[in-house]
What we know:
This protein is mainly α. It has one domain (35-312). It has helices spanning 35-58, 65-89, 99-119, 127-142, 157-168, 187-208, 211-232, 236-240, 246-255, 266-285, 291-313, 322-326; strands at 120-121, 144-147, 150-153, 173-174. The chain has a two-stranded antiparallel sheet. Strands 2-3 form a two-stranded antiparallel ribbon.
Amino acid sequence: MTVTRSDGGPATGTPGEPPATPTTSEPTPKPPVDRRLKALRMFATSITVFNIVGHLFLGFEQSPVTPILALLFGYTLDLVLETLDARFSNRAPGYVGGFGKLVDYLLPTHIAALACAMLLWGNTSMWPYLFAVSIAVGNKYLLRIPVNGRRRHFLNPSNLGIAVTLLLFPWVGIAPPYHFTNDAFGAVDWLIPLGILMAGTMLNVNLTKRWPLILAWVGGFALQAVLRWLLLDHMLVAALAPLTGVAFILFTNYMITDPGTTPNKPRNQMVFGLTTAMVYGVLVSMHVVFGLFFALVITCLLRGVILVCAPWFSRPTVPVTADERSGSTAPS
């Protein structure tokens, strides 16, 4: 017996059963990309590779064991503080959820620890590096302000660790700028800063979206140099010279652009970058050394004050009725 469709064609399936509903295989939509996590992974990869290459080939001045101990100490301290904070807050620790979750959770600490180990110079002593890492990690738990209903840290962790260490221990200094290309010669001496600049710029343009901050910071840096030349008779070439160094490129692309402690809106980013540059110019005019790090700390503090005071000055929103929206008024 042949079963036919209403249009006369043969039907498929068993007689007496309803015809099968055709299914369309639509591709499963991809989950949205977490730009913050992707940026953290790329930041961590970049600074790890640069540290390895620096100690093996470029002539980094610190002992090769310095970044290793800084990482181990930073990991341990962060896990202990997160465990205690989660217990007191009655929540699950942020690293719970498997090895991948643990790795992603430790990325900020990984970056901060390597930055402190790479940028500081404590001579033969190891504890200045560990002290800087402890400030960087502890800052995220001790110095928090309410932001959009959540308590968040507002000071750049690695920059704060470096600045506090330099301030409290005058015999500790910054790693000499030449050590980033100490053993590089010829074209390699130019390719290293060019590669860092290109990688950092692509990262900040595509993921962190902090390119307005970078433009304002670099433009503001040039502006303060010109103002010091015009008003204080400083040498213009010397004032602009830091722009050409690898240390400045690293600070611009990997330090000041920290997404967790900088504004999101482009206009506010430009204010942040310009403010940092102007504060730096004031500090240099007052003969304060290591002005880059102190200028960023001061700017982050100013932003923190604004974030704390902003709710006091915000205008309360009054609910609008349907009559007000339509423009009608009630009869008197």
